[in-house]
Amino acid sequence: MEPPSEPPQTLADPRELLLGYLDYYRAVVVRKLDGLSERELRTSRLPSGWTPLELLKHLAYMERRWLRWGFMGERVEDPWGDQGPDGRWRVGEEETLDDLKALLAEQAEATRRIVTAARLDDSAATGGRFAPPAPVPTLGWILCHVLQEYARHAGHIDVVRELTDGTVGK
After folding, report:
1. Which residues, at least 6 apart from 72, have a Cβ–Cβ distance to it below 8 Å?
2. What three-state secondary structure class fits 83?
3. Which helix (H) or strand (E) holds 27?
4. What are the DSSP calls for 87-132, one per residue?
5. What residue ranges of the chain have pLDDT lower than 50?
6. If I label 23, which of 4, 12, 59, 121 is the partner at 20 to 30 A Cα–Cα?
7. Does the predicted TM-score (pTM) go above 0.90?
8. Which Gene3D superfamilies match (predicted)?
9. What's the pLDDT score for residue 1?
């Protein structure tokens, strides 16, 4: 698999730049998981205890939570995902890497539809994640938040992959 590429350096449209970087970091995360065995995908290498599959599931739910439940105010079943009492994301034995990649891709498509239909300075709907008197973020702020979450977790998965088999890079 070819390493993902950042959006072109000539891209100036903020909406396309944010969407491009979200696509890039999703691809980085997925690429880092490709080639790991089922055991490696379900084993933690860090003291916090999360596994690569748990992180992937978290990212899909995080994006859904911020864009569909948060910005759109949609009624979303279980917006935080399946978390145990310890706060860790749970991945069932029946859930596979392909299942979670498909979930991530589904959220990416929903994000693109939402962002394409709105302005970056539009405020999130109230009634979903946000309710007055709490501040209501703009779509631009939400996208930056989601982007930094992907970037941070791409770094985490990069470290996990290096600890697992020595693979480094995009």
Report:
1. 114, 124, 125, 128
2. strand
3. helix 14-33
4. SPBP--TT--HHHHHHHHHHHHHHHHHHHHTS-TTPBPPSSSS--T
5. none
6. 121
7. yes
8. dinb family like domain (1.20.120.450)
9. 63
Does residue 133 have a cis bond before it (omega within 30 degrees)?
Answer: yes
CA dist list (Å): 170 to 29, 35, 100, 153: 9, 14, 20, 13
Take residue 151 and report the two structure tokens written for it.
């970037």
d(CA 154, CA 162) in angstroms, rounded, equals 12
d(CA 157, CA 161): 6
Domains and CATH numbers, the chain: 14-165 (1.20.120.450)
DSSP letters, 128-153, are: SS--TTS---BHHHHHHHHHHHHHHH
φ, ψ of residue 108 in degrees (nearest 5): -60, -45
Residue 13 burial by Cβ neighbours in a 10 Å radius (0-12, 13-18, 19+): exposed
Residue type, 112: R
